[in-house]
Every structure is written in C-alpha cells, then in structure tokens.
Amino acid sequence: MHIGMDHFARPDDSLAIAQREGSLQRNFQGYSSHAQCDLIGLGVSAISRIDDVYAQNPGDLVRYEAALDQGQLATVRGIRLSDDDLIRRDVIERLMCDMGIDLAAVSQRWNIDTARYFAPALEHLKSAEQDGLLTRNGDQLNATPMGRLLIRHLAMAFDAHLPQQTGQRYSKIV
Predict the structure, then answer these.
(1) What pTM, to 2 d.p., does this model score?
(2) What are the HemN C-terminal domain coordinates in residue numbering (predicted)?
C-alpha cells in the first residue's frame, strides 16, 4: 500500500499499521513507526535533531575529522525552531503521514485559530481542491488518491520558508 511520497509498505508492515493508527512519523530521514525522538547525525554533512534544534556537520571530510581530532562537536551550523516553525512542522508532518489534516485538532493542540493562522495556505490549496488533489469537509482536509501522489506539493502550502528561498534547493514538483 502507498504510505506517501514514493514510499510503499505491505499492509501488515509497521509503517502501514502506524499510518492507520495515526502514529506514523516523518523527518528528513524518511517515514518511521517510532515516536518522535532525538536524532544524532554522525558523519559528514549529517543532520541532528534534538527537540526544537537542528544542527548539521560539515560537508567535507577534512573539517569533520579536524573537529573530532580536537575533541569538538563537528557541528558547523544550527537553528532553533520558532513557535511558528513548530506549528508548521506539525501540520506538514501530519499531512505527509496521515494524508490529511484535522484543522480543529491543530487549533486545540496549538491553541490557535487555524482558519486565521493558515489563511494564506488554505487559500493556496483551493486550486489543489479544484484540481481534484484535495477535499475539504469542514475542518477536515484530505488528499485524494491523486493528491497522495503529490503530497509534497500540498504540504508546501504550509511552509513559510519556501517563498523566501532563492534558487532551487530541493527537488522540483512535476
């Protein structure tokens, strides 16, 4: 069965079970049936995630080895997520894992008015709804079978950092 973003699993696989139970997780390493946990990246250009902080190791072996030889962490950059980043990460992850979003649940979980908070994203998604990629029934947004294949495109509507990016940093949506 289709889990999402070109990932498939047998119906009895832990990923398929987690998706049915609403506990599927996704991060930069892919889908997981494990609860959110800290990830320590080891190696050149590895990314770590600890709570609301992301950190990346250097992209070249010489710098990475030099830091380790000096007994230092091999971290060259990092970022602490804002409250807005955390809310958006949650919504994007739920959409990519559940293939839908319960806006009322998001409102309750984050103590926000999702209709107002995500007004630009919801407006942007109207064209996806018209194209048959998404359905909206009250507070429920759900990807259609075709929309599941383009779930990354739907999730991009909630990413506040994308409009600010210049040049292509990620794969294009076909």
Answers:
(1) 0.83
(2) 81-150
Please give the structure tokens belonging to residue 69: 């030889």
Please list, residue by residue across 149-164, b when 16 or more beta carbons sit within 10 angstroms of its beta carbon and e when fewer do: bbbbebbbbbbeeeee
Residue 165 has pLDDT above 70, yes or no: no
Q: What φ, ψ does residue 53 adopt, rounded to 5°?
A: -125, 135
Tens digit of each residue's pLDDT (9 = 90 or more) over 106-125: 999 999 999 999 999 999 99
Measured in degrees and rounded to the nearest 5, phi and psi for residue 164 equal -85, -15
Q: Left if phi > 0, otherwise alpha if psi is -120 to 50, otherwise beta: which for 22?
A: left
